[in-house]
Amino acid sequence: MENRQLFAMQRLRVYQVARHFVQLVEESAIQDKELRAQATSSAKSAFLQLCEGLPNRGAGLRSKYFTESNNSLHETVGNIDLSCALGAISTERAAVLLRVAFQFKKLLSGLLPQS
Domain for residue 76, yes or no? Predict the structure, then answer.
């Protein structure tokens, strides 16, 4: 995809990291069927909620979507941790996923309302 054909949100670092995270989760091939389905679903949800929040100008809707993205990201992290504990994913692969998840969280935190 050429840059001139991208939406503004697609150029944002948070978008790029979140998209990469979903790709890594999808490629991770968690060996437990149920955990794999849940991990890919929650990772996709984290990304898509971010996408819904980014174009919104209203603080209320941005907060709603970014909070939901954050919740789905944490669900995915818990899933990765559990998958690793159960031997459904290697420790090394889990570490890579968690590193990118942390990058996503750090960028997303800047979008969340401060309490």
Answer: yes
pTM exceeds cut of 0.90: yes
User: In total, how many domains does the chain have?
Assistant: 1
Would you state the structure tokens that stand for residue 107, as one six-digit string? 């960028």
Question: Measured between alpha carbons, how far is 71 from 109 in angstroms, rounded to an integer?
Answer: 12
CA–CA–CA angle 25, 110, 22 (5° rounding): 10
Q: To which residue do tokens 């979008």 refer?
A: 111
Q: Is residue 7 part of a domain?
A: no
**CATH number of the domain within which 85 lies:** 1.20.1440.60
Q: Is residue 29 part of a domain?
A: yes
Which domain covers residue 70, as residue numbers? 13-109
Helices 13-27 + 59-85 axis angle, to 10: 30
pLDDT by residue for the chain (115 residues), tens only, comes to: 555 789 999 999 999 999 999 999 999 999 999 999 999 999 999 999 999 999 999 999 999 999 999 999 999 999 999 999 999 999 999 999 999 999 999 999 999 887 6
On whether residue 1 sits in a domain, the answer given is no
